[in-house]
Predict the structure.
Amino acid sequence: MAKRITIDPITRIEGHLRIDVEVDNNAVSNAWASCTMWRGIEKILRGRDPRDAWLFTQRFCGVCTTVHAMASVRSVEDALKLEVPLNAQYIRNLILIAHALHDHIVHFYQLSALDWVDVLQIPKADPAATSKLAESLSPWTRNSRNELKAAQDRVNAVAASGQLGIFANGYWGHPAMRLSPDVNLLAFSHYVQALEYQRKALQVVGLLGGKTPHIQNLTVGGVANAIDLDSPSALGMTQLATIRTLLEEVVQFVQQVYFVDVCAVAAMYPEWFKIGSGVRNYLAVPDLPLDSRGSSYDLPGGYIRGGDIAGAKTFQTAADPAFRQGVTEDVMHAYYQGEKPLHPWQGETEPAFTGWDAEQKYSWVKAPRFNGEPMQVGPLAQVLVGYAQGHALTKKYAGLAIEKVAAIGGIRVTPDMLHSTLGRHAARAIRACMLAELAQKHLQLLTDNIAKGDYTVYNAPVLPTHEVEGVGTHEAPRGTLSHWVVIKDQKIKNYQAVVPSTWNASPRDKAGAHGPYEASLLHTPLTRPEEPLEVLRTVHSFDPCMACACHAFEPSGRKIGVAKIL
Amino acid sequence: MKTALIGGIGNVLLGDDGVGPYVLRLLDSQYAFGDNVKLVDLGTPALDLTHQIVGLEAVILVDSVASDDPAGTIALYRKDDIVRDVPAERLDPHSPALSECLLTAEMLGASPKSLLLVGIAGETFEPGSPLSAPVQQSVAQAIDSVLAELDRLGFSYQKRLLPNEPGIWWREISASDPHPLI
């Protein structure tokens, strides 16, 4: 008899994603992913000036402010057929890269490393031996015995206080935790350092975007940065040099620490290359445009069906007709009115809450589909699509990852093994290395273009009176993001955001097909069903973000959600 | 130099949840602060809040509160009130995380010396709603709470002779808008 386990933010977990699994013989036999709060923010945009939409969409989510701002201006530019000057493309690309590097670092260390790293083993570690081990893995200069001892002391201090502070409520001592005390210490020391480097990445966003967490430099048609080579307050040599220094530090951390740690975790938990696959359809959009029209890109896009990497299809542009025409949202199992799947330009967001019902409606997330099928999005999708296309940068870092995992654990990783929980982590680290290299490239492109005397940052938009439609895409840290706008009489007539976590956290559709979170959990073995660490490992590997569009502090000491966007 | 952060937390698009950023903008428009006091509209910052608070002398946050108190009730919370409950394992790791951020700062040995949360009980969190009347009426008291904390800590400020435009941009809408915010 299957046993139902609910991991529900309302009862024991802070947040808004709820996972229900049925467990039979210590393995997951069925799964439901649901979002517990209503999203309806898009309706606020109707009737507004499309040039202002990005200010509002930036508030959809507190974590990914910039990505929603960027997708919004791109959607209006697509509708207006407006080109974006080179400087603006490079500045936008640098902001997107810096944000993504920040996000990938936060995801691995702060949000999922402690699924694999047992903090309470750290007091047993030997900092000198750990330092020696670290030197064999990476040239990183901050793996000294002293640095590691300091990290160990932090854990000891928290443990000695009698309360576990930030480490309360982990599954410490769980039999699925298998790293040695020294490896646990090494990873934890990087967890602490990661806080510094994610902050440096945010500083880059702030320098180029004017402010964080909400950037101010965007405008439909370009950016509002003043370029003046000699002024320290405008974008000139002083700021470019500061950005270069910050990026160099972040790039080193990504390539010498984050990438190596992911390879080490992969080498030490190789069984997780066989767990967590699920939906093997993948979707990614091209991003980081290299010209004003958006006809060539540094990141590849396309789609894969049924794990058939050789048969991958390519998207030529960020608003490729195949993508524009292929997306629909199904609300069969979501708390919305409506019968048939709708294209986002015709999309509706009329609530019809029924309460959680496994057979009927059970989520506030709509079910996006591409050509009628569920798709997995995120770094794994982008890496597989790039690999299929022979994209040089993807092959370079995928090759380095394969070498590193083989060197540490003697395991030969094949592309097929990437359809897994570890595959998602590995792909994110590979993508982070690609982005790190591209950060430096785009900074150079910007510097060179300014040096040529091109100070243009903006093309003025002209709003037509007839009805126009546009889609703005961005390959965000969690995957393909698309904003869909319909403009009539110079006002927004309809607006829909189809966000990465909607693709991945999607409920079943009319045909009963599971969304990616749900499918990835099927057959997952659980050592201790009452402590479902394995479920968390797989769900966390997607970098779930049911981000808090709204929250209020609960006096008992917790924030509670009241409404949300996905 | 002793430094203080005054942060408005919340989502401006969702009714009373936006009261934090709203109060912050009114403060900024009505008072002039020294260079050692930073005012930030934090939005819904999740874990990035850590970077805003580490190493500071004083942190003052204004946020909506979900409580049983009548809407508009202002309650003040200190560090201990916020970290009293240990954080639960998080399925959705990007959720709002004031307690996590404080505990992370503590683990780093860089927790702000003092922290005050000015919590305002909310009523409506619907997309596009304006502030509810009771919450709107509590705004002046929230501003006073922030200023009293600055006084207590010895940070100076001055009332502007002529207030600046507060820039509540999310309320500035066209007449044809079918979902008016005001």
